[in-house]
Amino acid sequence: MRFAFEDYMSEKNTYLPEDVKIPGGGFISFDRLLNDEPDTSTAWKRGKYHFHSQLELKYMIAGHGKIILDNDISFFSQRSLVIIKPFQLHEYEYACGKLEFINCYIDIETFCRIFDKSFLGNVISQIYSTIRTLDSVQSLPKHHGSIFEKLYSCGTMNMIMKVSAVLEIFIMLSGLCRSQKKEGNHEQFWDVLHYIDMHYAERIDLKKISASFGITPYYFARKFRNIFSMSLNNYVTKIRINKAKSMLLATSASVHEIGKAAGIQDKSCFARLFKKYYNVSPQQMRKEFIKNNNLS
Q1: pLDDT of residue 93
Q2: Residue 239 vs residues 27, 199, 293: alpha-carbon distances, Å
């Protein structure tokens, strides 16, 4: 499916708050955008702040831009792969001029259900958990980028082709994970991030988590701060607040319920931390979100 650039950036294609529509109730889809009209403007074209339940992979063939994700800004350009995890709130800004990319959307939940009663189910879940630790923007070698062009060119796929496509993408992303771990030489600490991502709603104690990975608390705390430039407590709080923000805008649950679901039991503590990160209260953010996206 192809979109004109103006259509893609218009409100009718923001997918907010609805999910991306995958044809035929499947679990993977592709679309390709091409904007090759010359533009000498220096302005950036901005999309809409949105989320969806699918894993989104955007492979840049030409052009450049930036992704705003959890209040962090990352830049991408030719042969970049942008990785947006399910339910992550994000928006794009594209520089004017030639722009071409391929979007791939994977419904992880539907895909994993296929292998529920198979030994492959656990393997695929573990691979996906590893993929979740990847940085949001990756620079791809040319042969990796060609995977997306090849899969897009396949057009209509049968079930076997779809499964093969997802597995091929997962294998490629797993390779990026190994490279990322090797470059940092901190493989054990990537496992720690995965543990926190899976257990953020629980009580995460320094002694407990360091013991789980066979590390002394002193070494763990010092090494964690050196690698990620923040303490374990600050990292866990950041994850919890980011998760709470997604729940706040994606559900109608009360602020107190969201705070507890994110692992922060005290209502006033949650409100204080939320405002510290986003400069507005949870109620104000939800109100503005509803107003700006005509969801009332």
Answers
A1: 83
A2: 27, 10, 25
The one-letter code for the residue type at 252 is S
Task: Provide the whole-model pTM.
Answer: 0.61
CB 176 within 8 A of CB 136: no
Sheet architecture: strand order including 137-139: 2-3, 28-35, 99-106, 55-62, 80-84, 137-139
Question: Which residues lie across from 228 on neighbouring strands?
Answer: none
* Distance, C-alpha 235 to centroid of its chain: 17
pLDDT at position 145 is 81
The pLDDT tens digits for 258-280 are 999 999 999 999 999 999 888 88
Q: CA-CA distance, 169 to 260, in Å (whole number)? A: 35
**Quick one: CA dihedral 140, 145, 151, 155, positive or negative?**
positive
Domain boundaries, the chain: 2-184, 187-292
Which CATH number is 187-292 given?
1.10.10.60
Helix (H, G, I), strand (E, B) or coil at 34: strand
Cis peptide before 17 (omega within 30 of 0): yes
Strand positions, DSSP E, the chain: 2-3, 28-35, 44-46, 55-62, 65-69, 72-76, 80-84, 90-95, 99-106, 137-139
79: phi then psi, degrees, rounded to nearest 5: 70, 20
The answer to whether 208 and 232 are in contact (CB under 8 A) is: no
Q: Which fold has domain 2-184?
A: Jelly Rolls (2.60.120)
> What DSSP assignment string belongs to 127-138?
HHHHHTTS-SEE
Mind listing the pLDDT tens digit for each residue in 54-112? 899 999 998 888 888 866 788 888 889 999 988 788 888 887 777 889 999 998 888 88
Amino acid identity of residue 260, one-letter, is K
